[in-house]
């Protein structure tokens, strides 16, 4: 029988019974009641009875629907308590079978969606390994269960040269490589587990090309380092990727609990610090966290914090190191060098904080401060008729800012400084990697009078064709090239070859860190144009530099040269 047919038949029988009863009552009243008043009362009773029966017949199905809807409401409210499993109530299934079926189907779809969302939220979609959130949760549980006296280990794995794969083969091939790396790491973990009964190591992909492995039970430090070496060797083997043989490596940081931390967070931080040391050593190796790394890291964090305050509180200063022409013997300019007047440690040299500023991005803010200081200083010089060129370094981080060149021009324009009084120094690597848009901006500055110099030449990668086409005025030899030029024949041969190369592209040559006259004599003979170094002038502040220029005689400068 179709849904609802039973209810319709039941209502029809009830209504028929009501009509028949009304007929019998009315017939009896007509046959036996003779008085008018009694007939009126009988008619009212009969009518009321019919209305009551009709109401019951119509209300019966409505009350069952209401009860079914109430039961359905209670079932839906149970979701607040997390009940996504119970089926629709029997009353709903009896009165509203289609609604009950729809409710059951809806809850099944919701459960499936939640399971899918959980999988997406807890597992990496590329490698199917646990993600960072899942790893932290599970590793916390594993570490909490480590018995006192036992050790656990954390391996932080960062792939070497992975970016080259993405750049050359594309991100799709990069993802395929990550899957292959994950599979090799699974093999290492499975092999380490062997036939032993215990808690399985936890392998996860944290982000990008970073993986981590947590071993909840290790016997000693030597075993942990052995595991790290196995991972290094596994990743060092070439990968066959769609006809390409891909060679990457892995830098691994290792930390051990409780020696290097008693929480997952502290172990991950220690392993991360050790990994960066392994990468700094050239990659393809592991590094175990130790107290020296901890001290170095804490010093770095403290330097970052203090350096931020230094910029805000005016602790930085600009010093000027004279540049001497080997041709005329005159001071032809100066390089602006940064000094940090630390409130507790005194004067700090750039090599103690510039690398940290580069890594943290603070170098962009510091670079803006230097530009502002140089612009203000040169503005005063220009108004006083003192025209000496000052060079300053430009960080690659500054070049990353789209508005850098506009702000640089504005800074010197605000102080009415002609661009002929400035020289911008770019590192060799930054110049080689600069985009065409950056090169166009540099060319425009040069066309407007600014000098352009290539700094630290001879230590990085140089594209000779790019060097020939770059807008350059001067090339500064790296101090390591000058160090043994007067005592080492090979050093002289290398410097002579570099000098001829630079002369060939039409640039002047500046030698930095010249410490004595013997070096200066050799460099002059080789064709070097300008020198700077402690032998001819240590970095000094503006007042001292102005005094040196004003009071030094040309003859004295010539004798020094």
Automatic annotation (TrEMBL):
This is EAL domain-containing protein. Pfam families: EAL, GGDEF. The chain crosses the membrane at residues 12-33. The lineage of its organism: Bacteria, Pseudomonadati, Pseudomonadota, Alphaproteobacteria, Sphingomonadales. SMART domains: EAL (SM00052), GGDEF (SM00267). Signal peptide: none annotated. The keyword Membrane applies. The keyword Membrane applies. Gene3D superfamilies: 3.30.70.270, EAL domain. PANTHER family: BIOFILM ARCHITECTURE MAINTENANCE PROTEIN MBAA (PTHR44757:SF2), DIGUANYLATE CYCLASE DGCP (PTHR44757). Keywords: Membrane, Transmembrane, Transmembrane helix. It comes from the Bacteria. Residues 150-291 form the GGDEF domain. Residues 300-553 form the EAL domain. InterPro entries: Biofilm_reg_signaling (IPR052155), EAL_dom (IPR001633), EAL_sf (IPR035919), GGDEF_dom (IPR000160), Nucleotide_cyclase (IPR029787), Rev_trsase/Diguanyl_cyclase (IPR043128).
């Amino acid at each position: 029988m179709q849904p609802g047919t039973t209810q319709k038949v039941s209502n029809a029988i009830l209504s028929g019974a009501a009509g028949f009863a009304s007929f019998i009552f009315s017939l009896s009243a007509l046959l036996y009641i003779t008085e008018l008043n009694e007939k009126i009362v009988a008619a009212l009773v009969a009518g009321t009875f019919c209305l009551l029966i009709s109401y019951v017949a119509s209300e019966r199905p409505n009350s069952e629907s209401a009860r079914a809807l109430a039961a359905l409401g209670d079932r839906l409210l149970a979701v607040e308590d997390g009940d996504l499993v119970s089926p629709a109530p029997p009353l709903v299934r009896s009165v509203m079978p289609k609604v009950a079926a729809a409710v059951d189907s809806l809850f099944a779809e919701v459960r499936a969606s939640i399971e899918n969302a959980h999988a997406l939220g807890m597992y990496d979609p590329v490698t199917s390994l646990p993600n960072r959130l899942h790893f932290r949760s599970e590793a916390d549980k594993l570490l909490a269960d480590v018995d006192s006296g036992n050790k656990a280990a954390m391996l932080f794995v960062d792939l070497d040269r992975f970016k080259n794969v993405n750049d050359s083969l594309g991100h799709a091939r990069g993802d395929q490589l990550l899957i292959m790396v994950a599979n090799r790491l699974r093999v290492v973990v499975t092999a380490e587990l062997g036939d032993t009964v215990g808690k399985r190591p936890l392998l996860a992909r944290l982000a990008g090309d970073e993986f981590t492995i947590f071993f909840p039970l290790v016997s000693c430090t030597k075993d942990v380092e052995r595991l790290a070496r196995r991972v290094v060797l596994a990743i060092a083997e070439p990968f066959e990727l769609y006809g390409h043989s891909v060679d990457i490596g892995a830098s691994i940081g290792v930390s051990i609990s409780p020696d290097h931390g008693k929480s997952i967070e502290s172990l991950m931080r220690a392993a991360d610090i050790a990994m960066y040391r392994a990468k700094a050593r050239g990659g393809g190796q592991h590094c175990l966290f130790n107290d020296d790394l901890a001290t170095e890291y804490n010093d770095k964090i403290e330097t970052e914090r203090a350096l931020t305050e230094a910029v805000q509180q005016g602790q930085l200063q600009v010093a000027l190191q004279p540049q001497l022409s080997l041709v005329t013997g005159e001071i032809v300019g100066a390089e602006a060098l940064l000094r940090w007047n630390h409130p507790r440690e005194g004067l700090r040299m750039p090599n103690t904080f510039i690398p940290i500023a580069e890594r943290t991005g603070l170098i962009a803010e510091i670079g803006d401060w230097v530009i502002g200081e140089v612009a203000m200083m040169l503005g005063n010089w220009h108004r006083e008729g003192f025209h000496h060129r000052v060079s300053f370094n430009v960080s690659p981080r500054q070049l990353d800012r789209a508005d850098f060149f506009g702000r640089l021009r504005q800074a010197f324009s605000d102080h009415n400084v002609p661009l002929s009084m400035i020289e911008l120094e770019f590192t060799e690597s930054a110049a080689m990697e600069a985009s065409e848009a950056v090169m166009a901006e540099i060319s425009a500055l040069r066309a407007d009078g600014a000098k352009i110099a290539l700094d630290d030449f001879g230590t990085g990668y140089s594209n000779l064709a790019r060097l020939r086409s770059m807008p350059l005025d001067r090339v500064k030899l790296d101090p390591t090239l000058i160090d043994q030029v007067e005592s080492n024949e090979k050093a002289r041969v290398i410097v002579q070859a570099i000098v001829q190369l630079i002369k060939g592209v039409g640039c002047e040559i500046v030698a930095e860190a010249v410490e004595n006259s013997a070096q200066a004599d050799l460099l002059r003979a080789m064709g070097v144009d300008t020198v700077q170094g402690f032998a001819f002038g240590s970095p000094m502040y503006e007042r001292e530099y102005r005094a040196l220029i004003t009071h030094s005689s040309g003859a004295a400068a010539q004798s020094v040269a």
